[in-house]
Design a protein that fits this description.
about 25% strand, ATP-binding, Helicase, about 170 residues, alpha/beta, hydrolase, nucleotide-binding, 7-stranded mixed sheet, helicase activity, 4 helices
Length: about 170
């Protein structure tokens, strides 16, 4: 089965620049990128490591429906299907690097998202989960609201069903 992405990013190449977490935070601060408490919690965790070496990734923006789930799916189902199709989970550090590069993200819905749902216009980075604790963030997502670029962390348990139109970014190493 081939994926026919219809997402906002489709595909692009991203360079992970070999920066430390503090360097990433400084650059995001300089560029007025906002972070929520969950993103800050991920950054402060010792299990979130960054590479000292630069490397490139090809990223793919796909919806849950692009992966064949017309009624939605859980993270384990989404990740398993994407891997079966030849995509890879992204390193956690891709979140801040993609946020720094993807500055032309379309504006998201201004209202409050439905509880336990991905906000309209958001893009979730499909990455290795560093903690099975339901109260610990599972990864990052990107959002733009009222002109402000956000790098946000999210919480979802393994039973949460993502909507068919929710966007995920997967990758392949170059």
């Amino acid at each position: 089965m081939q994926i026919q992405p219809n997402g906002q990013l489709n595909t692009r190449t991203i360079e992970v620049r070999g920066l430390t977490k503090s360097q990433l935070i400084d650059i995001m601060h300089q560029q007025s990128i906002a972070m929520n408490e969950y993103a800050k919690k991920l950054f402060s965790d010792d299990r979130f490591i960054t590479s000292h070496a630069k490397y490139r990734l090809k990223i793919f923006d796909v919806t849950v429906e692009d992966l064949g789930f017309t009624n939605g799916a859980t993270l384990p189902q989404i990740f398993k299907k994407a891997i079966k199709l030849g995509l890879e989970l992204c390193p956690l550090e891709l979140g801040p690097h993609l946020r720094l590069e993807y500055v032309d993200q379309p504006e998201g819905y201004l209202g409050n998202p439905s509880k336990n749902q991905a906000p309209s216009g958001s893009i979730t980075i499909a990455s290795e989960i560093i903690s099975e604790d339901d109260d610990f963030p599972k990864g990052f997502y990107l959002r733009k609201i009222e002109g402000v670029l956000w790098l946000r962390g999210y919480i979802a348990d393994h039973l949460h069903v993502w909507n068919p139109d929710d966007h995920f970014v997967f990758c392949q190493r170059l």
